[in-house]
Amino acid sequence: MSTPPQEVGARLATTLPGVGPAVAAALQRLGLVTLQDLWFHLPLRYEDKTRITAIRDLRVGDTAQVEGRIEAFEKGFRFRAQLRIAIVDDSAQTLLLRFFHFNNAQVNQLAIGTRLRCYGEVRRGAQCLEMVHPQYQRLAADTEQAVEERLTPIYPTTEGLGQKRLAGLIERALALLPSDAALELIPQPLREAQHLTSLRAALLYVHRPPPDADMSQLMLGAHPTQRRLAFEELLAQHLSLKRLRARLRAHHAPVLRGDGKLRKRFLQALSFAPTRAQQRVAAEVARDLGASAPMLRLVQGDVGSGKTIVAALAAVAAAEAGYQAALMAPTEILAEQHFINFHKWLSPLGVEVVWLAGKLKGRVRAQALARIADGAAVAIGTHALMQEAVIFDRLGLAIIDEQHRFGVHQRLALRDKGRAAPRNSGAEAGGPNNKHGQAEVQVPHQLVLTATPIPRTLAMTAYADLDVSIIDQLPPGRTPVTTVALSSSRRGEVIERIRAACAEGRQAYWVCTTIEESEILLAQAAEVAFAELCAALPDMRIGLVHGRLKPAEKQAVMDAFKRGELALLVATTVIEVGVDVPNASLMVIENAERLGLAQLHQLRGRVGRGSAKSSCVLLYQPPLSAMARQRLDVLRETSDGFRIAEKDLELRGPGEVLGTRQTGEISLRVADLARDAHLLPAIQRVGEVLLRDHADLVERLIARWIGQAARFADA
Question: Chain-centre distance of CA 97, in angstroms?
Fold first, then answer.
């Protein structure tokens, strides 16, 4: 009895010939379990082996396939072992093949006169054009061998599973690809309204591009067949977040609504009035906290817009209602800055604020843990808050700052600290119950903060599970920062500028970066700059901060700078967030071309916090790449965080902007959020119809494109 077409995709990959235990394990590592997984395991790029290029027609930078006879070879060990082979083709031109990794058996096969077919990138050599470590095969002396009939797809693979074997398995799986009727998961009326082409044809095209396919279009992901697949992939991502949002909001959360007295006292004690934007966003948060459905809100605000006040007001609401709030930040400097502010604001109100970080040891740590377990109103710290030893009494609100720096599992861990049956739940107490009469699980409200403005198009997809509030107004008194980009050859002028600013009683930062993000290298770069600046400015008090200092040493230097005892602070990017010194009016960023736009914008936000005119100097090492020049130009032209974020997305891609290269939250196979942003409004409309009318198709779409990763996305 034959398998129904719609069930073919669910067949295990182990049913294919040639898939034994070792291959199955390698496929499993790639997340390839079923035939459908193989159909949707899409090429990373393509190689064109459909034609032979004459050596005389090669151009530097091309990737091409050539044929020729070995004319000479040399095995040398001048600086490192290398094999050099000269081949000549019918155009009587010579191409040098260079190998640094080879063995004697390989050398013995490459005798003079042997015909080779080679594929690789063309480089300029000393005497002639070269290919370094090309792919090659030996050809029979007098036999013509056909070239490939179509472009060769190159797939993401893993150890123990070579390209050839993986491509063969995908070919066997494609032979079982069913008709469009069985394959399509977007209903026909919706497909026609969006002018979506056949999914079956799109899959076959991207796995088997014909020789006349537009290679440049395919490499850019801009081919119509790739756009068809991108639409469905982004739709699956969107549906996954929407579904998980609905799942989480089905839980019960504590109603955090007090009498407002603490809130009133908090606002009266502030030395400034919140901006209209802060008031608007705080009201949106308060409305969410006053409901029994869990709040899931992202608050975006540019550097210095006052997100901390909004977070503090939310914590006050939790305290008024008799619940705890936890605030988690990615670095100890930022977490400690929050603790200092919250302690200053809330302790006079009788609200206990506890500090917990990895550096706390022994009795001090035990006391902090005990106070949290006994119900201290606000706990502030780093990822230490998620450790098993941390037990909350009644966690009602989880606040996560700079959330894109945390992984999915970390956010789940903090949220799960508040999972419990409500204290007064149950039928007799009038608490929420599920259909079985049992008390519902209670989860804390979640407030997510970011000072990295996220472009609207990106937020629509990456944070479809969150309501978004934007603090789009800076407090009065913040001065615009003038930004200039200077070549490192003008370093002496910049040092004189620091001397002049500090002579007027101002303070300055000197930030060091390195090519490699290594704590050791960053520390070395900072130490070298510190020594040079101490020598150039002998009468100035200068401090040094980097990640390899002990926390106590780092904090002592930071405190001295805040008190004005130090005129200049030499630091690594450890000061990117959380440092607030209004008297600092000059920021120098060395090797600025090595940093992304968002990071440069964050660093620049450390100055301009007082009333004095402030400047940021971007020192760069020439020559600048085109992308680096664009980044520095954007910084010079605007201080609008959202415009900067849009440009950052365009230049670096969503994985970098969201910080998900490490966390793995957004791992797209074919779609690109910057390139395909124009598809997102249509995806929202189609998603709305599917969620309302086709719940079965929603589940299958998510399983097809996201699979097991979906279960972590409700963080």
Answer: 39
Looking at the fold, whether 559 and 686 belong to one and the same domain comes out as no
> Is 146 part of a structural domain of the chain?
no
* Beta carbons within 8 Å of 188's beta carbon, 6+ residues apart: none
At residue 313, the pLDDT reads 96
CA triple 608-614-616, angle to 5 deg: 100
Residue 72 lies in a domain: yes
**Are residues 300 and 336 located together in one domain of the fold?**
yes
For residue 659, the model assigns a pLDDT of: 44
223, with CB counted inside 10 A (0-12, 13-18, 19+), is buried
Report how many helices (DSSP H) and strands (DSSP E) the chain contains, helices first. 27, 22
Alpha-carbon dihedral sign for residues 391, 396, 400, 403: positive
Q: Which two tokens stand for residue 535?
A: 């020598």
Whichever domain contains 68, its CATH number is: 2.40.50.140
Q: Is residue 325 within 8 Å of 378, Cβ to Cβ?
A: yes
What would the two tokens of residue 522 be?
């960053």
Domain with 184, as residue range(s), is 5-45+163-217
In this prediction, residue 660 carries a pLDDT of 39
Domain tally, the chain: 4
If asked whether residues 209 and 282 sit together in one domain, one would say no
Is residue 319 packed enough to be buried (19+ CB in 10 Å), middle (13-18) or exposed (0-12)?
buried
Enumerate residue ranges in the chain where pLDDT < 50.
1-2, 408, 421, 424-439, 515-516, 655-665, 710-715
* Inter-helix orientation angle 695-705/224-249, to 10°: 120
Q: Is the domain of 597 the same as that of 494?
A: yes
Whether residue 654 lies inside any domain: the answer is: no
- The predicted pLDDT at position 119 comes to 94
pLDDT by residue (tens digit) across 442-454?
889 989 888 766 6
The pLDDT of residue 425 is 42
Region class of 430: left (phi > 0), else alpha (psi between -120 and 50), else beta: left
202 inside domain: yes
Q: Both 260 and 329 in a single domain?
A: yes
pLDDT of residue 713: 42
d(CA 586, CA 574): 17
Q: 183, 199 in Cβ contact below 8 A? A: yes
pTM tops 0.70, yes or no: no
Angle of the 491-503 helix axis to the 519-536 helix axis, nearest 10: 70
Q: What is the pLDDT of residue 432?
A: 47
241 & 307 share domain: yes
